[in-house]
């Protein structure tokens, strides 16, 4: 079996589209003016930002002015949660989130707790989704914000976002609804106005646009206190000279991903189903969370009994296959996954889990080679793994 280069870690980050790389190069070398400058170089850079805003607004069916560019998904989450809470604290000091959010959300909540806010952490069921009845019971008259992830980064479960949005607005119409869509934007058709989403975070490096850029959708009328203060760029919501190449990249990648999204999703779901049907025939392999259209098109979490995930990851790496053990999103506690624990995955499988995550570049041959490699290395690893 020859060695290849099979990238199945797209939930951690993605390769930029070649068209995006070309645009970034061009933007850096020719559109280098400061978008706030009043001469033509500045205006050309500002026009590039406008184009990116238009492209993104089209994908979400929202207004251009509702898009605020940030440096990453983490910043978008911080701005929505901390900025949203600080701007609305007169209405109350209670927030709700789930126990399996990304650290960008959980640590924003911790920051607010230190400032005197109160946070309710909803548990999840065995499919890594909150129960709507728990959400309903948690909403109070002083609840100012609910933050939920659209797609879980570790197991790919899809939260019932539209149902949650309708429920929140029915129980307390003043409660803001923030959705961390870092794993969902580009992999799902999302319409914030229909799903009663007030704020939505996305990240460039998860959608083939490169690192250093993200955005927060903020519905017109929602009050958010800026966290970055300075020269008042982006209507004062996010000061700092705009990252024009990154913003242009995000605009183009968004447009490209949504151009044929229905067909691309059909193909990814087919690949996912194929991989699951094959990997499930391997003894001691258990697929975590939901499958099919109730799950993300690109994430497959599998626990393999009798192995340590880091050792397995290294063995696959030797074969030129790049995957994650649990999630690569946190540098604090790699290894044991809080999401798998919260879902009630058996203790002996917690440290035996691999996340395979695909992209529009993934081909069936990549999966066949991966399955062949798993079948080859697994028995050997099991033999030498001390339990
Ligand atoms: N939210 C989720 C669900 C994520 O998966 C990630 C990154 O993995 C983030 C937020 C943070 O995004 P970024 O890496 O752009 O800061």
Sum up the structure in keywords.
binds pyridoxal-5'-phosphate; single chain; alpha/beta; Aspartate Aminotransferase, domain 2; Aspartate Aminotransferase, domain 1; seven-stranded mixed sheet; 12 helices; globular; 387 residues; three-stranded antiparallel sheet
The backbone outline, from C-alpha atoms, is globular
List low-pLDDT spans: 327-333
Instruction: Specify the CATH class of the largest domain.
Output: Alpha Beta
- Full CATH superfamily name of the largest domain: Type I PLP-dependent aspartate aminotransferase-like (Major domain)
Rounded average pLDDT: 95
Q: Rg, please?
A: 21 Å
Summarize, please.
40% of the residues lie in helices and 14% in strands. By secondary structure, the chain is α/β, with parallel strands linked by helices. It has two domains: 6-15 and 260-386, Aspartate Aminotransferase, domain 1, CATH 3.90.1150; 18-259, Aspartate Aminotransferase, domain 2 (3-Layer(aba) Sandwich).
Describe the protein in words.
- This protein has 387 residues and is an alpha/beta fold.
- The chain folds into two domains: 6-15 and 260-386, Aspartate Aminotransferase, domain 1; 18-259, 3-Layer(aba) Sandwich (Aspartate Aminotransferase, domain 2), CATH 3.40.640.10.
- It has twelve helices and twelve strands.
- The strands form three sheets. Strands 2-8-7-6-5-3-4 form a seven-stranded mixed sheet, sandwiched between helices. The protein has a three-stranded antiparallel sheet with strand order 9-10-12.
- The two termini are 30 Å apart.
- Mean pLDDT is 95; it is low at 327-333.
- The structure holds pyridoxal-5'-phosphate.
- The site of pyridoxal-5'-phosphate has 15 residues, from helix 3.
